Amino acid sequence: MKLVTAEQMREMDRQAIEDYGIEGLVLMENAGRGAAAVLQRRYAERYPGPLLILCGKGNNGGDGYVMARHLQAWGWQVRLLALAAPQRLRGAAGHNAAIASRCGLPLLVAEDEAALTRLLQQQNDCRLLVDAIFGNGMTAPARGHYRQALRWLNASGVPVFAVDMPSGIDATSGAVLEEAVRADCSASFACAKIGQVSMPAAAYGGALEVVDIGMPAVLQAAVPARLCLVEAADAQALLPRRTSDSHKGVCGHSLLLAGMSGTCGAARLCAEGALRGGSGLVTLAAPAIAQAQLTALAAEVMTFTVPASKDWEPFDGDQLSGLLAGKNAVAVGPGIGWTPASGLLLKRLLGCCHVPLVVDADGLNVLSQRPELLQGSRPAALVLTPHPGEMARLTGLTVAQIQQDRCGVASAFARRHQLVLVLKGARTVIAAADGRVWLNGTGNAGMASGGMGDVLTGLVAALLAQGLAPFEAAVLAVYLHGAAADLCATTGAVGYGAMAVARALPQARQNLQTAGIPRPEGGS
Ligand SMILES: NC(=O)C1=CN([C@@H]2O[C@H](COP(=O)(O)OP(=O)(O)OC[C@H]3O[C@@H](n4cnc5c(N)ncnc54)[C@H](O)[C@@H]3O)[C@@H](O)[C@H]2O)[C@H](O)CC1
Ligand SMILES: [K+]
């Protein structure tokens, strides 16, 4: 599903009105009525009691007035609480506030904290609340009685329905502007905004529904697919196809450089990810000291012993080049340590690897200490898979700064260093050097456990080895990884572990392959 920024949404709105002659009032009518219909469908049976709509001073408030009129006509007991006097509202919003008043809808006005405190005390009987305070136009944290209203909504203990998006989120970055409403459901208009889908804001919006407001199809089609929420159809289109005469020689050979004494589990999980991800052949290179601990490795995985007395040293350039021969993709990092020896390994590998390379975990920590390695000679296709902590080390930003603008930070890094950046976490971001930023929709909170990233690293390598381009391999890997975890979570939401996710990958791939997904017109 394509996503838009707040700016793109405003521009679409402007073009619909100015270039296509669709009145702003018509768009607002469609928006308000559409949102009311979503509310009616989702809540009519459960919450038939009084409903309070809090309206702000802009068009989001205007949508609230339209909703009030329709919901009243459908039998709801509706009250309006205006945080800005209706006569102050301009354009379509002012027009709809006046209509609501003429329709006799009960309207309270609170333009300061004292008035709001007094009026809110009379609303304890409300069974459902509607947040029509701020939408796409929110640019700064709410203050004064606006902030008070946001806090009251959150403390109410009553479900909140958000018009367009919860008040208090930045529609482009997904940042929470200090205080945001926690909604049970959001009805977005025309398109989903990236900030509604990206963390942390996505956790505030509840169930997301996109309402058709009559935006011309040509305007929607003109939005580039630069920002996207990866859904099953997107992932399915990327699956590498096999024919009945496929053999291991055409399904790629992945080389994994992972593990050392004490961290062999990371190597095993990475190898399992590559194997279950469909790599025709998998070779795991690990130091001699680690080999004894790798006996539990899947029998299908070949091993190479790094001729070292101690972890990864010495592993010279010629030996490395020999190891790379015949491989189609390489992954490096899980459990290799954050040592001068692993630094040397990274330097040599970046210099002599001519196939796509995935760097994860300790490999990323090495890069954060030696950023010059990204400037020098390196493979054309590079995929980095940091979690927010590793991203903080790579960029010098704090984790909080990264989490406030996950897409922006990931995209800037991918563009600057001309690589694919996978920023892990809920709603993993996959950013390409050309500006594409896709967000993943699969996965669950049970994935917050050690070893998940190691499986993903092996899986990305496997898909690269099967011939996918780096961005596509990263997108599909992240999708399948989350889908496999979702399968695991069906029998226990927490504690299934990373190995179980690796072993569920074939089923996740099969499910995706056979899913009957409606294709857009012209699709294959
Ligand atoms: N997408 C569409 O085509 C349509 C969207 N609609 C609705 O319109 C809003 C966006 O409306 P807008 O008037 O631009 O902004 P808001 O209502 O979100 O904000 C109101 C107002 O408040 C100002 N403001 C921003 N931040 C703050 C702050 N922290 N404190 C005080 N005031 C603030 C801002 O400058 C605005 O002027 C969209 O979400 C939809 O709900 C149309 O109804 C249909 C077409
Ligand atoms: K809102």
Automatic annotation (TrEMBL):
Top-level lineage group: Bacteria
Quaternary assembly: Homotetramer.
Binding positions for AMP per the UniProt entry: K424, G425, A426, R427, T428, G453
One BP term from GO: metabolite repair
Residue ranges of domain YjeF N-terminal in the record: 9-221
Sites where the protein binds (6S)-NADPHX: 59-63, 135-141, 146, 164, 266, 335, 387, 454
Co-factor(s): Mg(2+); K(+)
A GO MF term: ATP binding
Binding residues annotated for K(+), in chain numbering: N60, D131, S167
Keyword terms, alphabetized: ATP-binding, Isomerase, Lyase, Metal-binding, Multifunctional enzyme, NAD, NADP, Nucleotide-binding, Potassium
SUPFAM superfamilies assigned to the protein according to its UniProt record, in alphabetical order: Ribokinase-like, YjeF N-terminal domain-like
Catalytic activity: (6R)-NADHX = (6S)-NADHX; (6S)-NADPHX + ADP = AMP + phosphate + NADPH + H(+); (6S)-NADHX + ADP = AMP + phosphate + NADH + H(+); (6R)-NADPHX = (6S)-NADPHX
Family per similarity comment: Belongs to the NnrE/AIBP family.
High-level lineage: Bacteria, Pseudomonadati, Thermodesulfobacteriota, Desulfuromonadia, Desulfuromonadales
EC number from the UniProt entry: 4.2.1.136, 5.1.99.6
Location of the YjeF C-terminal domain: 231-512
Task of the protein: Catalyzes the epimerization of the S- and R-forms of NAD(P)HX, a damaged form of NAD(P)H that is a result of enzymatic or heat-dependent hydration. This is a prerequisite for the S-specific NAD(P)H-hydrate dehydratase to allow the repair of both epimers of NAD(P)HX.
Statement: the UniProt record of this protein carries the keyword Hydrolase: no
Designated name of the protein: Bifunctional NAD(P)H-hydrate repair enzyme
Cofactor binding mode and count: Binds 1 potassium ion per subunit.
